[in-house]
Specification:
This protein is of the alpha/beta class and 160 residues long. Helices cover 28% and strands 17% of the residues. The protein has helices spanning 9-21, 79-86, 105-114, 130-142; strands at residues 32-36, 42-47, 96-101, 118-123, 145-148. The protein has a five-stranded mixed beta sheet with strand order 2-1-3-4-5. A hairpin with a 5-residue loop joins strand 1 (32-36) and strand 2. Helix 3 packs parallel to helix 4. It is globular and about 65 Å long. The relative contact order is 0.17.
Length: 160
Amino acid sequence: MKRNDYISWDEYFMGIAMLSAQRSKDNSTQVGACIVNDQHKIVSVGYNGMPTGCNDDDMPWERDGNTSLDTKYPFVCHAELNAILNSSFGSLSGCTLYVTLFPCNECAKAIIQSGIKRVVYYNNKYAGTDAVKASCILFDKCGIETIEYSSSGKDIILSV
């Protein structure tokens, strides 16, 4: 008899996004992303971090500073953008993006341009910001489906 208590596809892929977030060096916000095609195959993952080739120890991770150049904001690549750029799959047309934080407007543009058609997000803690409002407008106008992740309530424990 087949096991019945296995996790859903959404739980699996959001779990991969959450695990990817744990790679982030950001001390305040860790974000992970997982891109999946229509055959339930993972085509890419990403997390928020410095661009390839930048030593994490040499870059600022602060949220506030004397100038914006003393903060992480002009330097960090968001998880969604990293996942899009990290893909070696080819076209992302029709794919689903699982992400732990609702995308900002800059990532929304990259999501749209890449052909991703569905975004499943875990948290939208910046919902009232202009960046997220702009994302919602862009997604709506371009026909991108956004879905808040709904957990089954299962505890997923990693062990060997």
